[in-house]
Prior knowledge:
Archaeosine Trna-guanine Transglycosylase, Chain: A, domain 4; 9-stranded mixed sheet; Carbamate kinase; globular
Amino acid sequence: MSTLSTLQFIEQAQPNWHRAVLKVGSSLLANSEDGLSPRHALGLAQFVSASLAAGKEVVIVSSGAVAVGRAILHRKAEAGVALAERQALAALGQAELIGLWQRFFERPVAQVLLTHDDLRNRRRYLNARSILQELLRLGTLPIINENDTVSVDELKLGDNDNLAAVVAALIDADALFIATDIDGFYTANPRTDKDARPIDAVESLTPEMFAMAGGAGTAGGTGGMRTKLEAADKATAAGIETCLFNGTSPDALRLLLLGKFRGTRFRPAQNRLAARKYWLRNVPVESGGIIVDAGAARALMDKGASLLPGGVSTAKGDFRRGDMVEVVLSDDSGQRCIARGVSQYSAMEIRRIARCHSREIDSILGYNYGENIVHRDDLVLL
Length: 382
């Protein structure tokens, strides 16, 4: 990659890992003019093959379906393309994308398409987790992509970087490798700023670092440095070391085969969140929320208690039982979100039993799902 900045990243050892997620961006696999290219994918596949031969486990999160679809129809990448067209292009390109990966490996690859809904719903989240773990047990190589054909929110955000971070937590990975077309994270855009300095290691991401990030790097890709930082932030919060490197660099790919790494290393948080608490903290919430008083807030924050109906003022929105919702403290200073969790009752049911004792739930509703509105095991403080 040619940049105006000439400063180089240092060579360092890879994290100690047994199971990893490798995220590969669109710019490494395809463009809208020529379609798929094995040029950069081959080096990444050699890294995966060597890792598998060493008894390690790898899951690939692969972008590129939309770019391949464009090439099939001989369309150029354009800004502001209608969502339906992008979804159609993704459907066209997905089969060829999986075919590209399969040609590199003797073992079977398994396509897994995920949406935000799969990660928001606890039952479907756990089902996805079980399937991926079973695919690894069977010796297959899972290839994951956002289900662009049906996922409105994800296509709008262009967020396979964050998807990779969530998948890494989903499968209890030790490391997340993000392959892109830039050498790593710099203090500024190295393509335009000759004074941009490489950042070899990040102990903790700060608002200033996010401010350094720009938008999408290529016409064919939808991710940019900011989404990579967001992904690193999520992964490290779950105790997963994250490595950002240049997948177009022969030298960087050669080092991977030697157990080394050149790029930016994001170190994990000191205290690893439990997998369930991580899920509660990061999956999207439904609109609305559960409004609580100061007494309930103290019980949640100081005593680690469950949320009972007696401390609930009301519920806003139209969420259902089992949805992820915010818990909002309402007092003289206003309203602020203090927690999020899985509600055992719908918004309509909560409005009926608010301010009541738990033993009254059955007589008011004619049934009950337990004494808690949100159980402490299903709740995380913010």
